[in-house]
């Protein structure tokens, strides 16, 4: 009988919030005596869990949305990535030329740190994480780097050529830059 009442509550509730509730229920056995009188006794205790749904307005507490952790909020974007060097084949400059090895942000290129990007997509100073490559900072721009394209600085020409061009590389923004290096 008690089980039926609980089941009725569960079936006819208006769903909005899901939570788990544990109940201890004493199962009562009715024993019929010969003179049509009934005697009750507790046969056993049963514990069961129910997931039931209740309306938010039935509670005094306001339901607050759960914040996702930082990792969940970060979204991967797909980029095409190539590599460049300080040399004439990439920049048109040779050692001794004005601006040789200097980025658009004014710092010297450094392998393992410098990346060139379209500043309309990733402003100077933006810290990104490139899947299977690592963390880099947008310090430079390039005439062919438009939209979702990146150019990694690699010191050695042979290594830069070996890197080639990779499409569909996952990139996530760690910290958006301000347009200049601090």
Quick gist of this model?
This protein has 182 residues and is mainly beta.
Please report the number of helical segments.
4
How far apart, in Å, are the first and last alpha carbons? 72 Å
Rg calculated over all Cα atoms: 33 Å
Overall residue-averaged pLDDT value: 77
Task: Give the CATH architecture of the largest domain.
Answer: Beta Barrel
The count of domains is 2
- Could you name the CATH class of the largest domain? Mainly Beta
CATH superfamily descriptor of the largest domain = RlpA-like domain
Adjacency order of strands in the biggest sheet: 3-7-4-6-5-8
Describe the largest sheet: 6 strands, mixed, barrel
Number of separate strands:
8
CATH fold category name of the largest domain: Barwin-like endoglucanases
The portion of residues forming beta strands comes to 35-45%
Helical amount among residues, as a percent range?
Answer: 10-25%
**Which sequence of SSEs, written as H and E, runs from N to C?**
HEEHEHEEEEHE
- The geometry reads as globular
Structural class: mainly beta
Low-confidence stretches: 6-11, 13-30, 46-73
GO molecular function, one term: hydrolase activity, hydrolyzing O-glycosyl compounds
Protein name: 3D domain-containing protein
Domain 3D: 113-174
GO biological process, one term: peptidoglycan turnover
